[in-house]
Amino acid sequence: MPKVSLSEGAKITRLETPFGIVRRRESIDVPVEWALLRIKDPNLMFVFGEEDRKDVSNVNPKILPTLSRVLGQEVDASTLSSLLLPVKKKTGRPKKASTPKKTVKAEKAE
After folding, report:
1. Is position 109 within any domain?
2. Structural domain contains residue 57
3. Is residue 93 part of a domain?
4. What count of other Cβ atoms lies within 10 Å of the Cβ of residue 40?
5. Closest Cα partner for 61 from 36, 44, 38?
6. Segments forming the whole domain that contains residue 44
7. What's the 3-state SS for the chain?
8. Chain mean pLDDT for the chain
């Protein structure tokens, strides 16, 4: 679940939500859809983590037009993930750079 707290420039000192009281120095967990619909509120600061990727990707398609208006650009679930979440790190071993193989022709001895 994303975390929300009051931003440094917030004009309010606390905000009561159905999920708890939001304060400047304390963050609370809120559902993804609740956070997305309030993402542009200048009083709130949201932090999304890798654990939120699945929920952001599976956001209700009915709220995508509203999110597009709020964010000022056309978004779908994958665009939303790339906007809000950190870049997904690749796992596994890095691939070695391949070098072209040189062929050596043997000269005939006379």
Report:
1. no
2. yes
3. no
4. 12
5. 36
6. 3-84
7. CCEEEECCCCCCCEEEECCEEEECCCCEECCHHHHHHCCCCCCEEEECCHHHHHHHHCCCHHHHHHHHHHHCCCCCHHHHHHHHCCCCCCCCCCCCCCCCCCCCCCCCCC
8. 82
Q: Please give the C-alpha separations between residue 84 and each of 22, 31, 46, 79, 80, in angstroms, as whole numbers.
A: 20, 14, 10, 9, 6
Full-model pTM: 0.69
Tokens of 71: 């964010």
Q: Is 65 a domain residue? A: yes
- Please count the structural domains in the chain: 1
**Residue-wise pLDDT tens digits, 39-85:** 889 999 999 988 988 888 888 889 889 888 888 888 887 788 888 88
Contact at 8 Å (CB) between 51 and 13?
A: no
Q: Among residues 86, 22, 26, 11, which one has the least CA distance to residue 35? A: 22
**CB-based burial, 43-58: b 16+ in 10 Å, e otherwise:** ebbbebeeebeebbee
From first CA to last CA, the distance across the chain in angstroms is: 79
